[in-house]
Structure prediction request, 263 residues.
Amino acid sequence: MIVVFFLRVSLLASIVGSICGIGGGVIIKPVLDAMNVMSVSCISFLSGCTVLTMSVVSVYKNMRAGKKLNLRIATLLAVGAAVGGVAGKMMFEAVKASVGNENFVGMVQAIVLIGVTGITFVYTIFKKKIHTLTLNNAVVCVIVGLVLGIMSSFLGIGGGPINLMVLGFLFSMSTKESALASLYIIVFSQVTSLVQTVVTGTIPPVQLSYLVLMVIGGLLGGTIGSRINKKIEDEKVDKLFMALMFIIICINIYNTYKFAVAL
Prediction:
């Protein structure tokens, strides 16, 4: 039963994540936290591996199909995100070590996710009325990517909704262009985060079968999601995204309460 559960969670989250460009980790992390199936560290690691797999597949499929992407801006953001991925992982390990209580770490992650998804939800509703910017400065792009990478790695969500909001507001990207750029950035931040985890020997005690199933789910989800993304309009992507944000906010409110009670 647990095997089917892990495959379904990773597959469905990766499909939606690929369509919207949110990585899927923002779904996987809070859902597994709510189910209380394993430690916060294990969930963050599994989520990161799944998101990386899905993002690589989605970016490859979309680029091969000729999808529009400003490579200069996306690469500068990705470079910053790669550094941010390392910094975010260090922050996660530092907070966990200093507190010594994974329930507290989980509570902090849930609270931050509520804030991030809440702001993004409101932005998405009113984005047609918001005047967006078109940043081009290389240093600024790297700094923005750095912040995105730190949040991505620390929260164990891959990139999440914050990427789409930032890409839309600061770089005036369309919904689908933001989704592809977000996945492109996620690849870099998750690769550096994973390499750091392996090099520092901080891989949590994850059951191999769970890891394999989650990665398979990410692979299939990225493939299916990229195909669906080609066929649907920006407005439908936005509606799916907003519905998802509302559900994620509700789950994270529950997780905050659950972790707080367990302290």
In short: The mean pLDDT is 89. The radius of gyration is 17 Å. Residues 71-99 form the longest helix (29 residues). Residues 62 and 230 are 8 Å apart (CA to CA).
